[in-house]
Write a structure and sequence with these properties.
With 116 residues, the chain is mainly α. It is built from 4 helices and 2 strands; from the N terminus they run αααββα.
Length: 116
């Protein structure tokens, strides 16, 4: 019986953390299409976060970082665009390297949001 309570407790904790991560405030919309769009985006957000938590747990990264701290650390990654239009990744810290390795991402494959 206690294993059922533990499962229920873990599901409730996951739901609460996911709800707060996805911005689970009351939905104030003027149209049904807007509400459907927000619900769809929240569903996608929860799915991605759940997958990230699973990957972090299996790689042991969850012992050192929360999802938010990990994303904040990765947010510091930068690329520079050279005059010949090539992009290079700036210096990568040890923490960033560990995170990228745990997700099997090569530093040169880090996306960039540079504009022309």
């Amino acid at each position: 019986m206690s294993s059922e309570y533990k499962k229920r407790d873990s599901v409730e904790k996951l739901f609460l953390s996911s709800k707060s991560f996805a911005g689970g405030e009351p939905l104030r919309n003027h149209g049904m299409e807007t509400l459907r769009g927000e619900m769809f985006v929240n569903l996608i957000t929860l799915a991605i976060r759940s997958r990230m938590l699973h990957d972090m747990r299996t790689s042991g990264l969850l012992k050192s970082y929360s999802v938010e701290k990990m994303l904040l650390e990765l947010h510091k990654l930068r690329k520079a665009k050279l005059q010949d239009r090539n992009e290079i990744t700036t210096e990568i810290t040890g923490k960033q390297k560990d995170i990228l390795e745990s997700f099997s991402i090569k530093p040169e494959h880090v996306p960039t949001f540079l504009t022309s």
